[in-house]
# Entry
Amino acid sequence: MSKANPVILVTGALGQLGTELIKTLRAYHGTERVIAADVRTPQPGCDFEGPFLHLNVLDKEALQDIVLGHGVTEIYHLAALLSARGEAEPLMAWNLNVDSLLNVLEVARQFNLRVFWPSSIAVFGPNAPRYKCPQETILTPTTIYGISKSTGEQLCQWYKIKYGVDVRSLRYPGLISSSAAPGGGTTDYAVEIFHEVLKNGSYECFLDADTNLPMLYMDDAVRGTIQLMQTQKEQLRYVAYNITGTSFTPKQLAGAISQQFAPVNITYAPDHRQRIADSWPKSIDDRAAQEDWNWQPHFDLDAMTAEMLKNLKGDRFSQLETESYADAIYSL
Ligand code: AKB
# Structure
């Protein structure tokens, strides 16, 4: 299959990013050319239609069989365990985040596949600049998730240099979306708050009021991902690019929701996730992405809040009410 007519495999397809990315990839390339795969089974009411395969990405032979059997030319490898869940289950986080990436990179080397793999702002630790954290800086993550992501970046870099694998990555900040819930992350509060406020008018936040973190609205994240993958390889100076939308605190988000919807009764009960949030930069410098592939976010805090409220007040909200955040842990 030529690169112009790719056959794309998306692992962790039922996660927060996969659910949205698949819709856009199918709109670009055609439904049949984009194979969704996940270790979980789609829930009734899950609204994407098209090829779906059960896959545990830790099973390299199963991955190889799918690649060969379906003529896969690109893998978007999204299966992962996020930061907070990773601290609770560090060995599983390492296993899933690093070993599965190794499987994907090996298969990519063998069969000359292109790869997209999500990194995270979690690669940065307390020694990196807090504000406008640069593309190139010291990476001293203090979570197993961050360590797995910075190791993953180095593995991608190694496969690129040693074997010429075309592998690309974005260091996503917190992703905000209305379709599928995130799970097991430290930035999840920024999605949970919408659901809780629409349901009860109140929210108990697990981070302090003034915890500033970089965030990105899902439409921007999907557009950025596809833009990166469409860029000529010669234009790309880095394997993993900083990317961001806007930074805000729980207090500022509650303020935006109050302004656009109804007064939010927010209380703060910081838990173990506060330490993780405090280890990450408050804002990100994504000029390298702007310069190399024209990255620009479209959604600021107000625009994102308006979209979230519009989407969640509609039909989708009733479906999501039944979903548990804890069930959505296995993919970014
Ligand atoms: C998390 O909170 O763990 C993720 C991330 C920033 O990578 N959303």
